[in-house]
Structures are given as structure tokens and as C-alpha cells.
Amino acid sequence: MKFYNLLIKYRFWLGLVAIALAVWVNLSSGFWPSFVLYLVGVIAIASHFFIGPLRLIQEPMEAGNIEEVEKILNGIWFPGLLFKPVRSTYYTIKGNLAMMQQDFTTAEKHLKKSNELGSPMPEAEGANKLQLGMMAMQRGDIKQAESYIRAAIRAGIPDKESEAVAYLSMCQIFMNKREFRAAKEFFRKAKACKPTTKQVVDQVKEIEKYISRMPG
Asked: I need a surface site. Which of 69, 100, 149, 182 has the fewest CB within 10 A?
């Protein structure tokens, strides 16, 4: 695995070396003896630009080494050349990093790009849309927030805590719209997720104070 990661990390430069050797062999012995070197060089350079080094991100992400993750992402010189599913993942990670730094403007820009491209995994698409919905709520754009959160629920959300957040957000939206029956239904779904995160549990308790007094 480490050897494969090293190949991914240095394949662009290895590709250039292979092309240089291919030219030397071509000049000294002819084209066909150099063909394999040309092929290896082209594949290495093409995969660097079209696939990128995103495979290298998993280990530093799990270790919480955000600086290394950013360094790997910065090594992608032309993200527009990445294959569509890879490019979507690239913008999702960029968006999540921006959110961690509380740069919500940049986060929204990257997540919207990922959303437009579509995610290769429905769960990731759901999480992406939920984040966009939460940012829209922070801006006070309730209509856009509802649209994104509904889309997130349809796409599927990867964990129960996030699913509870989605339903609680929809509950709040419908409370503001005074559509109390729908608000209660979303609240019931949020509680059914049985969230355990303190922030989410506190939000459930806070809404519960008002939900029982609502008509409908």
C-alpha cells in the first residue's frame, strides 16, 4: 500500500522521467523499443491530471492531519481536468475544510460546485445538500434551506445524528410557516432517530417545550 501511495504521489515526475527515457531510446534505437516507456509516461501524467492524488487523503484525514490534507489538495493544479466523480469529491472535501475554518462563503461555493456535479455516492450527496441547507438557514434564506434539506432527505443521509438535524431543521421551518401538523411530523421523525450528540439532544428538548402546545 505504501509503495502504491508513493507511485501516486510521484507519478507525474516519474511520468516525465519515463518520457525523457523514451525520447532517448527512440533516438538511439528507434520508436518501437521506446513505445512502452512512452505509454507508461503518458498514463502516469494523464492519471495525475484526470484522477489526481485524492486516494492519499484518507490516512491524514483519519489522523486529523488537516495541514497534510490541504497540501495534497493544493497539489491538484487543474481541478477542472479531474474526472467528474473525482472533481465532485474534491470540491466536497474543500467545502468541508472551509467549514472547519468557519469560512462559510468559500464552503458554500465549493459545496455548490460538488452538488452541481453530483456525487458518486448518494450518502455523500445527501450530506452535501444538508450542509448547503444549514448554511442557507444561517443566511435566513428559508425557501432555499427547505429545498436543499428536502433534497438531502431524499438522497439519504449517512448517519442518524445528521438525519435528526435535517428533520429538526424541517420542523423549525414548518413552525415558522405555521404549518404545525407537518412540524410535529418532522419532530417525531427527528426523535425516532434517537440522537445522542449533546447539541442535537438539547435542540430536541428545546423544541419539545413548544411542540406539545401547538394546534394540529
From this structure: 100
